[in-house]
Design brief:
It contains 11 helices and 13 strands. With 336 residues, it is α/β, with parallel strands linked by helices. The chain folds into 3 domains: 84 residues, 3-Layer(aba) Sandwich (Rossmann fold), CATH 3.40.50; 77 residues, Dna Ligase, domain 1; 108 residues, D-amino Acid Aminotransferase, Chain A, domain 1. Strands 12-11-9-10-13 form a 5-stranded mixed sheet, sandwiched between helices. The protein has a 4-stranded parallel sheet with strand order 2-1-3-4, with helices on both faces. Helix 1 packs across helix 9. The longest helix has 21 residues. It is globular. The protein starts with a strand and ends with a strand.
């Protein structure tokens, strides 16, 4: 019997619905449950064929457990090795190289020295930075946010350079990035599961959290939806995420990828709504079963993105991107 497990924290609606859905499908030789950890020994044979990871970004013990399980053959969704290395500033640079529009973004060093360092540790860093060039590049208003953070933690909207220096002085040891503001006409959030299943959702980030998926507006054009689908698949193909969301702000008809490093995206029924919740539960269950059927203990069953594969084969990234064909999407929908 192959077991599919889900590792989670405070959320409740999605984990229970996911386990129930997998078991309702009654696939021969496959069952689902909440992951149960009572001990972890190095290189032990893993108990799970597949694990959906919803919490290890906040619990280092879980991340180490998942890497150990992956070594024994567990298909972890998402790849814990890549997730440990990934960050938002790199993702923006990657997007530029594969032809996906993103806001102009600059990396900003931490305001305070990291622990166990001093001024002598920064012999290669210009002091001061070329702030005028940075501000000219991004313009104002702009947003400052952690270069590797998630959600809306430590996000600042800045109106001028004085505002920047004031807010930056509050960020302590956090490495930040400064990003141009995108004034948008439309906004979309897209689930992408398995690098092939896509759900496009109209979204309003300025609404209260529980109302962000409640949109009253015109139906987006098929051309726009096709472009958003292509960009979503392209980003996840290169990042190698099995379960992710991509957010797009549409400016002058052009979808600009704002945030696409969400490997444990919100999937609660109370926030995404009943229809979107049904889609993500059904699709996650379907994909997890696919992974379980293909999984073999004793070998690597992780998903590795095209960026890593490109590095391994020494193929130029831009040349690779020009010839890459996005995988055929299994399902595309636009829902309010």
């Amino acid at each position: 019997m192959k077991k599919i497990g889900i590792l989670f924290g405070q959320e409740r609606s999605f984990p229970q619905a996911f386990v129930d859905r997998v078991n309702q499908k009654a696939e021969k030789g496959i069952t689902a449950e909440f992951v149960n950890i009572s001990k972890v020994f190095q290189a032990e044979e893993p108990a799970y064929a597949v694990i959906i990871d919803r919490i290890s970004q906040d619990v280092p013990f879980y991340r180490a457990y998942l890497k150990n399980a992956a070594m024994g053959g567990t298909a972890v969704i998402n790849n814990p090795f890549w997730w440990s290395a990934d960050e938002k500033f790199f993702n923006n640079a990657l997007a530029v190289n594969i032809g996906v529009p993103v806001p102009k973004t600059a990396l900003i060093p931490s305001r305070e020295h990291p622990e166990d360092t001093s001024g002598l540790s920064f012999s290669n860093l210009a002091m001061p930075m070329d702030w005028d060039a940075i501000f000219e590049y991004t313009g104002f208003p702009a947003y400052m946010k952690p270069f590797d953070g998630g959600g809306w933690k430590e996000v600042y909207k800045l109106h001028d350079k004085e505002d920047f220096f004031d807010k930056h002085s509050q960020t302590k040891q956090t490495v930040m990035m400064l990003q141009e503001e995108i004034v948008f006409e439309e906004y979309f959030r897209c689930y992408c599961i398995g690098g092939k299943y896509v759900r496009i959702m109209q979204y309003e980030p300025r609404n209260p959290h529980h109302l962000r998926y409640v949109i009253d507006g015109p139906k987006p054009s098929e051309k726009l939806l096709k472009t958003i689908t292509d960009y979503t698949l392209r980003l996840n193909k290169y990042l190698g995420y099995d379960f992710n969301t991509v957010e797009f702000a549409v400016r002058n008809g052009v979808p600009i990828a704002i945030d696409f490093c969400n490997p444990a995206p919100d999937a609660g029924e109370e926030s995404v709504g009943a229809e979107n919740f049904e889609w993500v539960v059904e699709t996650a269950a379907t994909y997890a079963i696919e992974k379980a059927k293909a999984q073999k203990f004793g070998q690597d069953n992780l998903t590795w993105g095209e960026y890593v594969k490109t590095g391994a084969t020494a193929t130029p990234l831009v040349a690779k991107a020009k010839t890459a064909v996005a995988p055929k999407t299994k399902k595309v929908a636009s829902k309010k």
